[in-house]
Design a protein that fits this description.
269 residues, alpha/beta, Rossmann fold, 2 domains, 7-stranded mixed β-sheet, 3-stranded antiparallel β-sheet, 46% helix, 16% strand
Length: 269
């Protein structure tokens, strides 16, 4: 399949792990870049417009557009996503004998919990993803599925809430629906809320604002969207590839440049 056709196919994919999707895209964007830079800008713009809440796609696109060697940049970005140590860091940081609440299927947090296998995990359902994750985790430890109506109670009874960013910036993170409610209840109850920030999730302020604008402009009511904003002030700790950090510090430390080309909308096509 021609790389442009592959990119069009990927643009229509919904619900995939952000990092996995970006890794799939990287090889196709590299081929587009290798054939000439003229096609790279519109390809990147269309990808982030179709997936405004996918941090790794913004991150990958910005790195490639700002690089003098976008082909090599794509390869290095894909390797960084594949070798992300965040799950390992998180697993090492999680205390013993606690009850952890997650919402939906946060891939990195789920990998960390599977590494541990000794914690009680409450999995709040979010679009059906929570049910699948609860079944998966039940084979490695103690996991309980929480229906939507029980989210507040689960947050209040947990020892720790994990909120995994799909994309993030200085003012907060976009995460699975239900994450804001879980974080708010936990914070009100003096229960710690950790933001999980895997590779490629934290954007510089201009790209973060562009992502929010595209996300808000998608035409859906807030309660029908596939993600929601969790304000930074609800987080007490951020865990990323380098380990634990203050949320304000971590959310203000992007690992990609500002690519002005991504601040403008794609044309028709």
């Amino acid at each position: 399949m021609h790389p442009i056709e592959r990119l069009r196919h990927v643009a229509r994919v919904e619900g995939a792990d952000p990092a996995m999707l970006a890794r799939e895209v990287a090889s196709s964007l590299a081929e587009v870049a290798d054939a000439g830079l003229a096609g790279l800008v519109p390809a990147c713009r269309r990808l982030v417009e179709h997936h405004p809440a996918n941090g790794p796609l913004w991150w990958l696109s910005a790195r490639m557009l700002a690089s003098a060697e976008p082909y090599q940049e794509a390869r290095e970005a894909a390797a960084a996503l594949a070798n992300d140590p965040t799950a390992r860091r998180l697993a090492d940081l999680l205390p013993e004998d606690i009850t952890v609440l997650v919402v939906g299927w946060p891939d990195t947090a789920a990998n960390a919990l599977r590494r541990r296998g000794d914690l009680e995990v409450l999995v709040a359902d979010s679009g059906g993803d929570g049910a699948a994750l609860a079944r998966r985790l039940a084979g490695d430890g103690d996991a309980t599925l929480v229906a939507d109506r029980g989210l507040g109670a689960a947050a209040a009874l947990s020892s720790l809430v994990l909120v995994e960013a799909l994309v993030a910036g200085p003012s907060g993170v976009l995460a699975a629906p239900g994450s804001h409610a879980a974080a708010a209840v936990a914070a009100r109850s003096a229960i710690p809320v950790w933001g999980v920030l895997p590779v490629g999730r934290v954007l510089p302020e201009p790209l973060w604002q562009a992502a929010l604008a595209r996300f808000d402009g998608g035409g859906l009511e807030p309660w029908d969207r596939d993600a929601e904003l969790v304000p930074a002030d609800l987080l007490c700790t951020a865990v990323g590839p380098a380990g634990a950090a203050e949320p304000a510090e971590a959310l203000a430390a992007p690992t990609c440049p500002v690519a002005p080309e991504l601040l403008r909308a794609a044309g028709p096509g």
